[in-house]
Queue: 3 jobs
Job 1
Amino acid sequence: MDKEKTSFAKYKRREKTTIRLKSCYDCRKCKKIVHIEKVNEELIVMYQEIGKYISKKTEEASYGSEFVDNVAEFFYKTILS
């Protein structure tokens, strides 16, 4: 009988530890997701600002100034090189 109680107590402790570890894993997973969402949010804001800048400069550029070609070349050299 004592052996059964001891085995059951060990099982319960192991079960609590497993739940605690799973909870900790879920917490880390949630934190990782929150960080990923924050990075995505910042990227979206950055892309919007780049779009606004290009749109504004396009309106200011005169016909034949090759502004769009220059911007495309800049991004090609900067990002793809």
Note: The chain is about 90% helix and 0% strand.
Job 2
Amino acid sequence: MPPRSLLSASTRADLFDIPTGFDDLVRHYLLSPPDLELIRTRRRDENRFGLAVHVSLLRHPGQGQGKRMKLVSHYALSDVILT
């Protein structure tokens, strides 16, 4: 017997999916000065960007990137995270 799901698919999506609206992206993923200080310790651009994405995903929805998780476009995230 498969395990019972406590949340419906729509409720799970509301809680754990990455938001796509600009205001929601800013609210959840705007990095604090200590976050930016940590990110700047990486040498290459791709490493800084990757760490910024991981820090943001750990903040909301509270887990790292999973196999089923769809990331918002690279450009949308970089505009919010790195500016």
Note: Residues 17 and 28 are 12 Å apart (CA to CA).
Job 3
Amino acid sequence: MQFFLILYFLNLQLVQVEDVEVAKELAKTLQKVDNISEYGMEMLVAGTSMAKSSMKEIINQDKKNISLLVIWKIAVAQINTVQIGELVARKEEIAKRN
């Protein structure tokens, strides 16, 4: 299963050369992992941790600025996490303008 996911990933048009190298290393690592689900969750938690980031960094990490009809400018952002508790604990900080 892991091989097919990596193969699919490598065929996406947005893949960079570095992504291919990382995927190859990941494939080697996965051969040694006993519980893929547990390993995957550990990777998600580590990759979405917000503990060391300021709220401004968190909000701006995936922000897209969009101009509408030249007169309006809006920004759209999303926050990815598997640890919703980190966000809940910082809800007052989120509500402030950044």
Note: Helices lie at 2-10, 17-30, 36-48, 55-60, 84-88, 91-95.
